[in-house]
Amino acid sequence: MNVLLELLAPVGSREALVAAVESGADAVYLGGKMFGARQYAVNFDDDEMAEAVRFCHLRGVKVLITVNTLVDNSELPELTRYLRFLYRIGVDAVIVQDWGVARIARQVVPELPLHASTQMTIHNLAGVLFAARHGLRRVVLARELSLPEIEYICQNSPIEIEVFIHGALCICYSGQCLMSGMIGGRSGNRGRCAQPCRMNYQLLTEAGDPAPLPEDVGEYLLSPRDLNTIEWLPQLVKAGVASFKIEGRMKRPEYVAVVVDTYRQALNQIGEGADNKAYQIAAEDRRDLAQIFNRDFTTAYLEGRPGREMMSDRRPNNRGTCIGRVSRYQHDVRTAVLRLEEPLMVGDVIDFWVKVGGRVNVTVHRILVNGQEVEQAQPGEQAVIALPSPVRDNDRVFKVFDVRLMNRARAFFNRSEAVRRLAVDVTVTVGVGAPLTISLKDQDGFTASANTAFIGEAALKRPLTDETVTKQVSRIGNTVFEIRCLDIAIDGQVMVPVSEINEARRQAIEALEAARLAVYDRPALAERSGPEITGIPAKPVAANKIKTLLAVNVDTGEKVQAALNAGADIIQFGGENFTALPYTREDYEQAVGMVRRAGKKMVLTIPRLLKEAQLTEMVAAWEWIGELQPDALSIGNVGALEWLRQRTDIPLQGDYPLNVYNKASAKFFQEQGLGALTLSPELNLSQIDVLTASLAGEWECLVHGRLELMISEYCLLGGYLGGRIPGPCRRPCRQGRFMLKDRLGESFPVVTDQYCRMHILNAKELSMLPHVGKLSALGIRRLRVEGKFAPAAEVGVITGRYRELLDQGEQHPRVQSNQWQDWEHHDITRGHYFRGVL
Q1: d(CA 767, CA 646)
Q2: How many C-beta neighbours within 10 Å does residue 471 have?
Q3: Is 799 helix (H, G, I), strand (E, B) or coil?
Q4: Residue environment code for 181-192, b if the CB has 16+ CB neighbours within 10 A, otherwise e
Q5: Are 716 and 542 spatial neighbours (Cβ–Cβ below 8 Å)?
Q6: Which residues pair with 430 in a beta bridge?
Q7: Residue 492 to residues 237, 434, 464, 489: CA-CA distances in angstroms?
Q8: Residues 6 or more apart whose Cβ sits within 8 Å of residue 602
């Protein structure tokens, strides 16, 4: 498909908005005070957002609004109001994560374009086709894709494809991270990520000993470098990418200005299908991108699967640019002599990376070179600066704030007149007996005109001249327009007051602005309210008196048998294998056979992440998988749902990675044919009560086991212990288990699956043993034990305990005595069931 080349900029404040537009963005994305994935940015209230839309549209810049969080049931009425407001003010599209939000938006604002957020974890063509089939106009792909994978999707997609090209990376697949919420109550899926990936960790063996990491490895083992694809833009354009997205709604406006300006100039070199041999990025532009903010740079997965070279394990925040080293420190006068490799100016801020004791930071107030005070020292010179804290010879010096660059960046947003102006041709006509008319035509073909109320009179003393008219008409410096051509036609000796000319100019400019904005006007909305907004009954559905079933999710035949022996009703098998070994046909046949002989139900899990190559493998295995005829297939991604929808009539059920958080998303997936749905583990009991009381369904909740907090295409074990660079991985994941120990002493198991993806599990084991009755009373049809990380014997013990509680209910001795000490160890958690997330 033919695509635009849109440079999409992040906006977290009014200053950043101006910076983005003036530095060359084609579109911006920003959020309101609710429903945005960056709730700790300044963001915009309704009035500010309406003004931001007007500001951008006047300049021909599109505005995309982030409504890309999971939404609570109590927030659905406010969501509906907000969507209608966004429609009325003319935003160009809304970016969504929650399929319930998409469902509501299609009902209440059907003409408002929707884009799939990267939080939807769409990472294959099937996922894109699913989004297109449900009316979305664009998909923001997962950041874990290679260039060939992006190109394949672009070339076969019926809708626009957007990719990230610069900025911070998440180590976890976006939309799949539960770590921030689980350890701190601040959910990334709700826009409040506490960034646990930027914290320091120790890698330990299962015995608790430090893992044998290389000596140069730092402590920030989950902190990726920043994405930088400036050199790859021609290839991305050729691949068919429509929108090039810069990350950074939490960044300062100077960052937005520099990054947008640099990428704008780069994209201007490229035309669709242009010869890429002439494409060049100046060394100064590369330096500016690094100087404004970097954790070092990476191309992430564009070139394939990276190892530790993708990580910024020595520093999780801005490292600046290296400008030289310390020649010597003069203790008596507390000054440092620097051997410069890059310029240093008064006002710069620099970091010293000292060999012992971390880093020393200082603002440069005075520079001496050869005994003379200077404003700027040049490369090759020895610069002397005041430094109260001692440093050592040869310590590296990094500039983390460049006053020259910051001043250039601020010029994009702190001046009263516009930087990017719209060219306008002006025609002025006037004569005796006629008003003075000002006609405008801008560079995009929009026109407007205005007349003076005063009718031209014969001049007695000072007739109008071209100079007088030019002076008055040219006074448009505080507008977005600049005059390209001015044509003045004065018929005879005529007089018109200057004040009248000024008023006509003002009216003509206002009319031209109105003409530009009119193209964004939309028809009035039909008011809709009540239950038809979501298609969900407004009257609560009475909880059915149903038997609660016990499901156990495992990955080996030994665990299947242990769970069956202990009384499991449902076995869930397959998906990601925590042994790091691939499943074989025999594994599946053995598991299905055991379940069938026991007279229980079998659910086969489709891996939640299936890139194109893995889908190809799935095609090869699908015939014999289908022959096994499981009772259901469990899916955790819309790509798998779309793929299976065309290939099987085996019942499908939805797993928790689908992020079913409210009744609208639950209804959406029910409409897609999913029978059972596993609710989001970020819901509390009160939220579950609201959902199950208002919508009938076969609900499942996770009740026991090590919950998965992150899934990453990057493998920490392979990167740091596997010796991947160079050569193949030594597979440390198959030689023992490992843990990440955080600064609070909690240890998070790290496992690798058959696709070499890393999974980080919770440090504490979820246990809802004392509260089985509460969940059953809420109408939960299935309680699920996560047994992939546990040994088979433990799977059997835990399954047996839940079996007892379900069978005996309130009559169970432990329920009556409320004594659980010997059934639960000290290192357990109730998850979010009693606290929820922010």
Answers
A1: 38
A2: 12
A3: helix
A4: bbbeebbbbbbb
A5: no
A6: 490
A7: 57, 12, 9, 10
A8: 570, 571, 573, 591, 592, 595, 596, 630, 631
Residue 391: which residues within 8 A CB-CB, separation 6 or more?
326, 329, 336, 352, 354, 360
* Residue 541 vs residue 565, higher pLDDT: 565
Transcribe 389-426 into DSSP letters: S---TT-EEEEEE-HHHHHHHHTTTSSSS-SS-EEEEE
Q: How far apart are CA 427 and CA 713, in angstroms?
A: 61
Report how far residue 742's alpha carbon sits from residue 736's, in angstroms, rounded to the nearest whole number.
20
Say if CB 564 and CB 691 are below 8 A apart: no
Cα distance between residue 275 and residue 21, in whole Å: 28
The pair phi, psi for residue 186, each rounded to 5°, is: -110, 105
Q: Which pair of tokens denotes residue 187?
A: 């959910």
**What's the pLDDT tens digit per position in 453-488?**
999 999 998 999 999 999 999 999 889 999 999 999
C-alpha distances in angstroms, 91 versus 17, 50, 82, 242, 484?
Answer: 15, 9, 12, 19, 30
Residue 527 predicted with pLDDT over 50 = yes
Q: Classify the phi-psi angles of 479: left when phi > 0, otherwise alpha if psi is within -120 to 50, otherwise beta.
A: beta
The per-residue pLDDT of the chain, averaged, comes to 94
Phi first, then psi: give them for residue 408, nearest 5 degrees.
-65, -40
Q: Judging by DSSP bridges, how do beta strands 243-246 and 297-298 pair with one another? A: unpaired
- CB 290, CB 321: distance < 8 Å: yes
DSSP 747-761: EEEEEE-TTS-EEEE
Who contacts 833 (Cβ-Cβ below 8 Å, separation ≥6)? 684, 685, 768, 771
Q: What is the pLDDT of residue 726?
A: 57
Cα separation, 322 vs 329, in Å, equals: 18
> Which DSSP category does 631 fall into?
S
Given a cut of 50, is residue 816 above it in pLDDT?
yes
Three-state SS letters, 337-398:
EEEECCCEECCCEEEEECCCCCEEEEECCCEEECCEEECEECCCCEEEEECCCCCCCCCEEE
Q: In b/e form, how buried is each residue of 282-308, taking b as 16+ CB within 10 angstroms? A: eeebbebbbbbbbbbbbbbbbeebbbb
- Separation CA 67–CA 32 (nearest Å): 8
Torsion of CA 458, 461, 464, 466, to 10 degrees: 140
Q: How far apart are CA 208 and CA 210, in angstroms?
A: 7
Which residues lie across from 2 on neighbouring strands?
Answer: none
Q: Which of 711, 831, 718, 817 is nearest to 775 (CA)?
A: 831
Distance of CA 544 to the CA centre of its chain: 39
Question: What does the alpha-carbon distance between residue 92 and residue 86 come to, in Å, rounded to a whole number?
Answer: 9
State phi, psi for 369 to the nearest 5 degrees. Answer: -130, 120
E-only strand ranges, 217-320: 226-228, 243-246, 297-298
- Global pTM exceeds 0.90: yes
Instruction: Give the Cα separation of 185 and 192 in Å (integer).
Output: 9
Tokens, residue 676: 């059972």
Query: C-alpha angle with apex 220: 215 to 225, nearest 5 degrees?
Result: 100
Q: Give me 376's structure tokens.
A: 């700027």
Q: What is the pLDDT of residue 1?
A: 40
User: Which pLDDT value is given to residue 37?
Assistant: 73
Cα distance between residue 169 and residue 195, in whole Å: 11
Q: What are phi and psi of 161, to 5 degrees?
A: -120, 130
Instruction: For residue 16, give the H/E element and its range.
Output: helix 14-22
Beta-carbon contacts of residue 542 (< 8 Å; ≥ 6 apart): none
Checking DSSP bridges between strand 782-786 and strand 549-554, what pairing results, if any?
parallel
| DSSP letter, residue 76 | H
Asked if residues 371 and 428 have their Cβ atoms less than 8 Å apart, the reply is no
CA 125 distance to own-chain centroid: 19
**Chain CA centroid to CA 727, Å:** 32
